[in-house]
Amino acid sequence: MTSSSPVKLLEGRPFPEIAANVLRDVADAASAAGAAWFVGGATARDILTTHRFGIDQTRATRDVDIGVSIASWHDHQQLRNALVATGRFVQNEKQAQRLDYRSPETGQPTWLDIVPFGGLELKGENVIAWPPDGAFCLNVEGFDEALRAALPVELGRDLVVLVASLPALAMLKIIAWRDRHTDNNRDAVDLRFLLATYSLAGNMDRIYGGDADDLLDTWGDDPDKAGAALLAHDMMSLLTPFTREHIIDALDPLTPYPLILTQMMGGAHRLLSVGDDKPELTEGLFDAFRSTVLKA
User: Fold this and answer.
1) How many DSSP H helices and E strands does the chain contain?
2) Span 17-164: which CATH code?
């Protein structure tokens, strides 16, 4: 955890009440289980961009994603049982990690994806396999790093939770892209959003006269490129040597126009649109990001 004082959200951009209620239940269940956890995925992205800095999204987030550091599958099931016992959650019939939630006040539905890690990985791997048959597997590489770097955020009255930082989200997006880029380009496009908005996410003071002002000089006084480079710098400070190797492999340093960059463009399938969508903008952001990764 990188900060002890909770991050405050913008008054005009409150966190959705239904998601806050889900996380209150998670906080109670995790506390009873003695399990450390963090908010991840698009939920974390929205908290640290839209709700903290007013950076708009074009793809709404309906679900809540969390990672839970827990010792055993038995403990994981006990935590899930505690949530189901509230009467507000039920096990999703198709996805093992998912609990469906319905607000008792409004009837509004959402869902909670719980990814356990920390004591459940297959021997010698960063993969978890759900019991009983292990048919459903997930890669949890980077989750320990994300938990260590998570930020305490005040989401509502008496609700402070750990949220994966934007550099940690960039790391997790690249790891996810390595696993599933043949299915869709979503992870690459989500990474592009982080590259394009990191300067706006509370980092302008660092870029102009702060600890990152050298990046502004390096990237031709372009704050967006400097922000992408700063994101790479901050991300690399989180990585283990093992994860660093995988990040560099995904960025394909020997290829001028690698697949992850091609997928960042999104084409007609773009999911998140940020500012000027000209290809050279994305190319410049990626170049700043990858170059900084390789120098770290």
Assistant:
1) 13, 9
2) 3.30.460
